User: Fold these one by one.
Assistant:
Number 1:
Amino acid sequence: MRGPLPDYPWDAMAPYAEQAARHPGGALNLSVGSPVDPAPQGVRDTLAAATDAHGYPTTAGTPRLREAIVDWFVRRRGVTVEPAAVLPTVGSKELVALMPFLLGLGAGEAVAFPRVAYPSYAMGAALVGADAIPADDPADWPEHTRLVWINSPSNPDGRVLGVDALRAAVERARELGAVIVGDECYAEFGWQAPWDAERIPSILDPRVVGDDHSGVLAAYSLSKQSNLAGYRAAFVAGDPELIDRLLTVRKHAGLMVPAPVQAAMIAALGDEVHVAEQRDRYRARRDVLLPALEAAGYRVEGSEAGLYLWATRGADAWDAVAEFAELGIVVGPGHFYGSHSPKHVRLALTARDEAITEAAQRIREASAAA
């Protein structure tokens, strides 16, 4: 039997959320990156039209969905894959947490991931009894590493890995005989040069892997770009042999994207207008919140892409969380993202415009009164 799992980290936020709720103007939750903007109307219409889903959906996805994913990779990521090398998933979190299990990892093997990272990478290792290795430098990945996670743009710190860094990571993973997966869910949201004008590179980019996808996968979600978090709509692509293994295990486990959601995914993947509109919303919110934080003495580090601002004033993150709570603002402590970020907090841009504006105003007023 596996050892006991750690407590769910966000449960520790309850007293701070209660403190924020006591603010006369109410609480503003910038802690969790759950989309608040409407799902595209065309996607919703497609979902509604597909509700007569009386038969079981296919784990592999319909041929139309696989073709839509293939076409999207060419248009948006500059990557060519075959329909047999893509696979829809029930959101991306289950894929991240279950990947070590799906690949057959266990005790005596290791999962490597960034030092500042989404906690589900480590949890996936814990679920199968594998070693969790937070390490940014590929040279630090140990010999028993069998799975590597790359997250670019990163949650929480918004860093982007360029082609050279991705290539070095792939080369090292192949030396170790490890599978490497690029978690690319925020790839549509680049803010600072060069990523405000250039495509953020995929781990499957030909400049990274040439035409050889062996041992390499890329994961993507429609939660952020299309506001479909509630749909649980995501996919993975890359090495056909790995995709075939994932497909077989997922068939046995009954992991299937519901048929109406598969139809909705096709609509979302074919519509680039709504993605551009959502990008503009997040850019505008960032332009409001970032200067307010900087005026209050926070350094916003990384955050060149993605949906978060990664900020510090040099104090312990819990102290900063408490200070924000006094302003009625709920933010996420860096402690949730590994032991290497004890002095940072994460603020999400996924709150409504009026909430972002109000948060910025409260931060400015508190800074002026200090």
Number 2:
Amino acid sequence: MAVSLAGCGVVDGIGGDGTKASPTKGDDITVGLLLPEKENSRYERFDYPIIKETVEKLTSHKGTVTYANAQQDAAKQNDQLQQMVDDKVDVILVDAVDSKAIAAGVKKAKDAGIPVIAYDRLAQGPIDAYISFDNELVGEVQGKALLQAVQDESGSATSKKIIMMNGSPTDPNAAQFKAGAMSELKDKVVIAKTYDTTDWNPVNAKANMEKAIAAVGLDNIAGVYSANDGLAGAVIDVLKTAGVSKVPPVTGQDAELNAVQRIVKGDQYMSVYKSYPQEASAAAEMAVAKVQGRSIEFDALTRDKVDSPTNKGIPAQLVPVVDLTKDNLDDTVIQDGIYTVKQICTAAYKAACNAAGLK
């Protein structure tokens, strides 16, 4: 889980070299939180409430979180960031709708003396730190699982036709997911069709999957690389509507509840479980440590380094991920309290849950 040094002898405002860090603030701080959309349930269900709760805990309930959601509108997010600069928040956590478009706003914040931490997506511009999951590893996990699922008895998949349903071209994470997946799939399967899904919108994925079926043929599709669970749901719906006798392996990401239920039922092959509580709580710790000048704590939280198109050597934390299948639901989303068995095993999934040993 997130590294916390607040109770381990770290002195407020003392840097790693023993010098006074600057600037330093007390517990009465305001953290600005900019999230990109509500299509994915994680942001309202996990990220915002966990960040808010953690900030309050770290500041003896004197600190607050100012929250805004851009609902997939990059221009709106820039306006929200500007408002936070005008309101003089102490630090900003931003999960960018468009990593490039946000760069000018990030610079304005920095010019105003407000640290900016890129959350979940690597924003361009002079950010102070970055926290996310290891996105190429996410793609590798997806690609490896799909490759194993479509292999024949000899272990070969070179003749198998795969559809790639990638994420939004404005999201740098999507490019990393794709690169990771391709490192596992390239030259080992036939990539029959590949699509980038504008705005991560399942409606766009649905239209693209319909095109793929028309071009490749329903019976010729051995599997689908789907970058996240929202796209996976759209892909599976199209395959079923088209009359597939058995849904071929479809990947996903985010461990959304309906995706977990599809996995239990056998409609979705896998998802990637990312511990949002771990990411969100670490981000909150990072923001508080940065604005309070806790250099040792901040450095401990950002031991990785990443490069963006505009900045090199950005302090970062890359949170590990897990391949989520029917076999490890107990040890992941249930054990971590993301979902209860009761939430997963509703009436429609009762028989599938019993067969999977979820009781």
Number 3:
Amino acid sequence: MDRDFYTEDHELYRATVREFLLREVVPHHESWDEARWIDRAVFAAAAKNGIYALQIPQRYGGAGELDYRYRMIVCEEVARVHAGSFAVSLGLQDDLVLHYLLDLTTDEQKQRWLPGFATGEIIGALAMTEPGAGSDLQGIRTEARQDGEDWILNGQKTFISSGIMADVVIVAARTDPTGSTKGLTLFVVERDMPGFHRGRKLAKIGLPGQDTAELFFDNVRIPGANVLGGVGRGLPNLMSHLPRERLGISAGAIALSRAIFDLTREYCFTRTAFGKPIGDNQHIRFELAEMATELDVAEAYVDKSVLAYNAGRLSPVDAAKGKWYTSELQKRIVDRCLQLHGGYGYMSEYPVARAYTDTRIQTIYAGTTEIMKEIIGRDLAL
């Protein structure tokens, strides 16, 4: 089916993204994974070339472009060059951190942080998860108590994406010990604040170049000017940004699934066995036919979700539907594509092998599949 989703301007932008990736990412992403560290200079280069942070208003150094289709193009093109760690790191900035800084900041805070974000000089992280609190935000134990105009922050976070690299970390902390729904507040913790310590860089089974860390806060003094979105507003502020985060997962999932499918389709019709391409076997053709159909159907939902987001109409429930379905689809597609590659699929030099380990986290972060179904199920109750 024709995909009348992009305009000529979008395709011109795609050419810019492709050129940037070939120059700045393709020669390096494998060495980044080996080093378990992405050279942060690439973020400055990406920002300079308009690869992310397009939404930042022009007065703060951005383009003021709100159309999510440009972000979708970046997802598709990064997936096409199989740079998984870079894709997730970029998505964290564009789909999570940036929108907290755009939506919840005062004019003074915007002036402090957005210009640096627009140039790629400031890298951000979002710190919600704790050893005893993941999807259940009510279980957060990190706390902040007021001391004059300041706040004193104590606690720890884990599984924080870009936690080592980040210059600013948006931290969810409990400010009301009674445990009420107004008990959470967001704070911006900056790199050199005394008492802010970064723990070990966590070893993962996938996405090795994208750093994930433990963070510790030991009597960190946070000025009142670093409260984000108002005292006691942490929970609704977090909830209001979940549709964008989950749309980002859906966009990345469908893009990666499509890229690995295209690679596998080509492999099946060039790899021969028993004197003919393996794609000439009916079973292989049926496998490819099923995946092609599933991808087209899911892509239509994601495209509609993007347009709904652009119009301000993407609901948390609809975003949850897309997130769980496309991330589970990604798992199925990549697993089947690895199988069709045979022994080569198990070799780490092949993109499908790296995609296999990178993919596993998709159904976990930004809300597990089980949590997504719970959100949808509650909405269905009479």
Number 4:
Amino acid sequence: MPVATLPHPLAADWAAHLSRDRRRSVHTVRAYHATADRLLAFLGQHWGGAIDARALAAITSADLRAFLASRRGDGLGNASAARELSAVRGFLEWTGTASPRLRGPKVAKGIPRPVAPADVIALAEDVAEDAREPWIGARDWALLLLLYGGGLRIGEALALTGGVVPLGETLTVTGKRAKTRIVPLLPQVRIAIEDYVRQCPWPLPRTEALFRGARGGPLDPGVVRLSVRGARARLGLGERTTPHALRHSFATHLLGRGADLRSLQQLLGHASLSSTQVYTAVDAAHLLDVYRHAHPRA
């Protein structure tokens, strides 16, 4: 039976620390705050008393296993349970409590599947053509080309403001933990964004969102995902063809054309090289697929 989650001041303090001191994204803070609230609510029922930082010092691996079991009862899979455990460990460490030793659930490391360049263009064209107004079509075309041409996360693209105009040969992008990086801007992408800016019926002040929704507010990423979902169904593309898959495709195609991992790490804004190395597996998987289909003895 799901544990009732009640707001807890200790969890709120941790969320404030993540936002203020660690510069975590709004989504990460919200998710980690919810995990801490769930843990504290569970322990309150499990131990039968009020929970504070001092009480947390008594937590054991058996308590954590019981908490994860309760979350499994809520329908959590391995990947979600692993993220939950990671958040719990971070929360306990922040309170000064040593996290009990507990092996997390095994999670298969997913390999991003790139979208073929021709399919990227077809997808962007379909989304643009399906738009209800020409300026919205220009916006969607520019946005999807930017995700693929610059390797941006959708949140990074939607965080751009009117201050990026007029465009140059590069774009300054703010990524996770407020880290900035320089991304080269392909001429085709620059032209597409400039065309959208010309057609956009809303003013684009330097401090406000560059990509606007139909009513003039900041564009919601859910709107973009819904449009891509419709286009991929019409084009017969796989379910993994998402806005984020365009970033994976950017990385994989650069690697396949000789880009080194260090440069790719900088372009993607990865904090560590290990995050970028997954793309070597993508490229190897592609080569193996080509070999199996082309070699007469395969």
